[in-house]
Amino acid sequence: MYATERQQQIExxxxxxxxxxxxxxxxxxxxxxxxxxxxxxALERAGLVRRVHxxxxxxARASTAEVSVAERSAQRSGAKQAIARAAxxxxxxxLDGAVYLDAGTTTGAIAQLLAAGPHPAGxxxxxxxxxxxxxxxxxxxxxxxxxxxxxxxxxxxxxVGAQTVEAIARxxxxxxFLGANxxxxxxxxxxxxxxxxxxxxxIVASARRVVVVADGDKFDAELLVSFAGLSEVDVLLTDxxxxxxxxxxxxxxxxxxxxx
Length: 260
Fold this sequence. Notes:
Blueprint: H1 3-17, E1 19-21, H2 22-29, H3 33-45, E2 49-52, E3 55-58, H4 69-73, H5 77-91, E4 97-101, H6 105-116, E5 124-128, H7 131-137, E6 144-147, E7 151-153, E8 158-160, H8 162-169, E9 175-178, E10 182-184, E11 188-191, H9 194-206, E12 210-213, E13 225-228, E14 235-238, H10 244-252, E15 256-259
Parallel strand pairs: 4-5, 4-9, 5-6, 9-12, 12-14, 14-15
Antiparallel strand pairs: 1-3, 2-3, 7-8, 10-11, 11-13
């Protein structure tokens, strides 16, 4: 097989699986690991992949890669809706107490369900630093709303900064639904932006119960900043069963995994 053919197949594997390992590729193509590393180097120079320890990942999984809320809204919408329904079910029949909703498209889907109702009237109070979530819930019947202020990042429509972190630190919500750009066995929960990470870290520290809502595309991804370890998570709500090292790490951390 010519190098160009092999590299095309490697590119296709990364596009499908998100990540490849040097040893696996060497076995697959019957070549040396040095040959595979040359292939990966060529693909990286062409801007098609990003090399990581032991292999390569899709360019979209670069540690600082981030897309806007508008772009993410159109991605895996079915999975996000299923996860959102599971999140509302997790709240129970009474739907009371204080709920923190992180910024993100999946938490936005949760907000849409809470706003649409119907649900039993109770003392449900939603707290959020997401301008998008606040807009959805403003005026919703039977739902109280507290919006946390701060400097708003245009990319995510989320308040960030010291003011936001300090306000969250003074809260103790019963449950927090938290998004993540990456969920990894070794790196935990991560996100590309340090300011967003600081806010998420404050939410984790404040909430009595932490529920991560993340579809399977986030599995094994490691973004620039880790904001929580798996041991700090109570429940992972997702659409795909974790596998391999991530599944083992979640089990060891005693994280309850629920498939929507």
